[in-house]
TrEMBL record:
The lineage of its organism: Bacteria, Bacillati, Actinomycetota, Actinomycetes, Streptosporangiales. This is Response regulator. CDD domains: LuxR_C_like, REC_NarL-like. It comes from the Bacteria. The modification 4-aspartylphosphate is found at residue 60. The keyword Oxidoreductase does not apply. Residues 160-225 form the HTH luxR-type domain. Residues 9-129 form the Response regulatory domain. The keyword Endoplasmic reticulum does not apply. Keywords: DNA-binding, Phosphoprotein, Transcription, Transcription regulation. It comes from Actinomadura rugatobispora.
Length: 226
């Protein structure tokens, strides 16, 4: 949980040492980011989140023992995911696309390729720390393209449609753009409103839909897209 202008606190969880070391080396070059701890498996990652209370968890989807999805589930179950708790960004490769929807539904803020650029990593960490979406542009376009098509082919649940009708037309517009992977700034430009207004809409959307994170809102939006 952030305090004032304190640096963004990050925990890195990945079973590959070269990945952990590489991410840590990049993050520690920044004055506004500090690496609080590293973990090589899900159990250790969960313990670190409990003791260190980081702002952001960079979490590998697949690890030995308990994996990243298990960690997300445990954090969600205890109320420590999203909101004023930790914001999770999944570390993934595209052979793991089948896990994207489940992770977003559990409350992950977004996804980052392990091969992402220096700039994409830093952008994702800073966005997640502020509760914003953390899908780097390349990841967003490739992942969302496949999942929108998949969800459109499925029957939309009547309960989801009822929840959607609780939103105002403008909130539905914002939700649709969140589902497309746009940041608050990009949504503001698209709708010709201030970024503050977009943040207010996103907060109201989460409250009305009973969701914990922007990632869950994106997953909901893709589920009801037609």
């Amino acid at each position: 949980m952030r305090s004032g202008e304190a640096p963004i606190s990050v925990v890195i969880a990945d079973d590959e040492r070269v990945v952990r070391d590489g991410l840590r080396a990049i993050l520690e070059t920044q004055d506004d980011i500090t690496v609080a701890g590293v973990a090589a498996d899900g159990d250790h990652a969960l313990r670190l989140c409990g003791t260190l209370r980081p702002d952001v968890l960079l979490l590998d989807v697949r690890m030995p023992g308990h994996d990243g999805l298990w960690v997300l589930g445990e954090l969600a179950r205890t109320g420590e995911l999203g909101g004023n708790g930790v914001h999770a960004v999944m570390l993934t490769t595209f052979d793991l696309d089948e896990y994207v929807d489940e992770a977003l539904t559990l409350g992950a803020n977004g996804f980052l390729l392990k091969t992402s650029s220096y700039e994409e990593l830093l952008t994702a960490v800073r966005a997640a720390a502020g509760g914003d979406g953390a899908l780097s542009p390349g990841v967003a376009r490739r992942v969302i393209g496949g999942y929108v098509a998949h969800r459109r082919a499925r029957r939309v649940d009547a309960a989801d449609l009822a929840r959607l009708r609780e939103l105002t037309p403008r909130e539905q517009d914002v939700l649709r753009l969140v589902g497309q992977g746009l940041s608050n700034g990009e949504i503001a430009a698209e709708l010709v409103v201030s970024e503050h207004t977009v943040k207010t809409h996103v907060s109201r959307i989460l409250t009305k839909l009973g969701l914990r994170s922007r990632g869950q809102a994106a997953a909901f939006s893709r589920r009801v897209a037609h």
